[in-house]
């Protein structure tokens, strides 16, 4: 029998096992789009449902309309440790995976765990804590957890594949934005810089953990009830990256009022102290050719591009109780999709 010299749960700093962390470890948006470009197009013959949302718009989840008038949603997300605490990491990863279902206007139905674990380096009871966190959040969302898949992996990874349902006529799509509509953001930014500081120093930011474990269920439900048709969630590509994707898919432009964007306490200090992830810098570089920065300086732009993990919804419409941070406008002929003012 193999014996492990793995440290006890409380002694382990899980973020030290991750090269990146959370959604900041996503493949950069430009590289991802190049990699999946060849997958766009072909349709299977005899499929029992109609593909309403597929790869071409890079939306949050796939949507298939069944003949009974239901849309089935499918999405998956997993990443390396974003915080040191195993239970919190599990909760954050599950809230993040479920978020793509909410970002489409749906309700999660059943989730499967996806786990990568360095089994000779980290005790499996730590993985059990991660899974416990995930299940607790899924159950809070009213979602079954009914299986999964686990592999030996040099870097720990956790997430879920989630199936949900939605009304096909009331989806929140990322390509349904229209000029003149206000933009609402339902969680403050700054998760990326605080997580980066946590990884570097071990300081714990409970308010960031609270934000990341909060479900996007209520604002999504409210948006659907109010007749909103366009939204996405703000994750690894940052507000600027996800807004660029939404504006591009919708064929519109977008304006961000930088002074109205909310930030978590400590975010500006973390940025000033240099805790910026490579993912955030890549986000800004990717968006820059399509960005009119106005008078925003580099620090402001880095915060707006900060790679979020389990961030809020970016809704093309008003959601009571959450700040309006800009609006959609007509498309600009010069290729700029996002203007900061
Ligand atoms: N390996 C892959 N094969 C096919 N499609 C992929 C692959 N990786 C990502 N995609 C697709 O690319 C698009 C963008 O992915 P991305 O992960 O940024 O969006 P997302 O699912 O909204 O995730 P999140 O909200 O967690 O950032 C999605 O439509 C996704 O399904
Ligand atoms: Mg998403």
TrEMBL record:
Record EC number: 2.7.9.3
Record's GO cellular component terms: cytoplasm
Cofactor: Mg(2+)
Enzyme superclass (EC): transferase
Domain PurM-like N-terminal, residue spans: 58-166
Cofactor annotation remark: Binds 1 Mg(2+) ion per monomer.
Reactions catalysed according to its record: hydrogenselenide + ATP + H2O = selenophosphate + AMP + phosphate + 2 H(+)
Binding site for ATP: 26, 57-59, 77, 100, 148-150
Single GO term (MF): ATP binding
Binding site for Mg(2+): 60, 100, 233
Site features described as Important for catalytic activity, chain residue numbers: 26
Active-site residues, as the UniProt record annotates them: 23
Residue intervals of the PurM-like C-terminal domain: 182-267
Keyword line: ATP-binding, Kinase, Magnesium, Metal-binding, Nucleotide-binding, Selenium, Transferase
Domain of life per record: Bacteria
GO biological process: selenocysteine biosynthetic process
The protein's role, per its UniProt record: Synthesizes selenophosphate from selenide and ATP.
Subunit and interaction comment: Homodimer.
NCBIfam families, per the entry: PRK00943.1, selD
Family of the protein in this entry: Belongs to the selenophosphate synthase 1 family. Class I subfamily.
Listed name of the protein: Selenide, water dikinase
Species, as recorded: Phytoactinopolyspora halotolerans
């Amino acid at each position: 029998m193999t014996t492990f010299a793995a440290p006890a749960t409380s002694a382990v700093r899980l973020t030290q096992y991750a090269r990146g962390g959370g959604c900041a470890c996503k493949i950069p948006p430009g590289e991802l789009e190049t990699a999946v470009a060849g997958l766009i197009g072909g349709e299977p013959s005899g499929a029992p449902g109609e593909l309403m949302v597929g790869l071409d718009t890079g939306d949050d989840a796939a949507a298939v309309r069944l003949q009974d008038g239901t849309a089935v949603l499918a999405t998956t997300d997993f990443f390396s440790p974003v915080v040191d605490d195993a239970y919190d990491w599990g909760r954050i990863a599950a809230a993040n995976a479920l978020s793509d279902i909410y970002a489409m206007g749906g309700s999660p139905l059943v989730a499967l765990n996806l786990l990568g674990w360095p089994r000779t380096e980290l005790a499996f009871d730590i993985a059990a804590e991660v899974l416990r966190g995930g299940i607790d959040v899924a159950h809070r969302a009213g979602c079954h957890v009914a299986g999964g898949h686990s592999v030996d992996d040099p870097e720990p990874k956790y997430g879920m594949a989630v199936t949900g349902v939605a009304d096909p006529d009331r989806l929140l799509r990322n390509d349904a934005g229209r000029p003149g509509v206000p933009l609402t953001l339902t969680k403050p930014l700054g998760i990326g810089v605080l997580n980066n500081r946590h990884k570097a120093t071990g300081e714990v930011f409970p308010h960031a953990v609270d934000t990341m474990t909060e479900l996007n269920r209520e604002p999504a439900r409210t948006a659907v009830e109010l007749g909103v048709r366009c939204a996405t969630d703000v994750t690894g590509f940052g507000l600027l990256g996800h807004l660029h994707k939404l504006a591009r898919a919708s064929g519109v432009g977008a304006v961000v009022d930088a002074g109205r964007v909310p930030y978590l306490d400590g975010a500006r200090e973390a940025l000033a102290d240099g805790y910026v992830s490579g993912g955030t810098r890549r986000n800004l570089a990717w968006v820059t050719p399509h960005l009119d920065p106005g008078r925003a300086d580099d620090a402001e732009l880095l915060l707006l591009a900060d790679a979020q993990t389990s961030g809020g919804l970016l809704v093309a419409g008003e959601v009571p109780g959450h700040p309006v941070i800009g609006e959609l406008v007509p498309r600009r002929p010069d290729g700029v999709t996002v203007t900061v003012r």
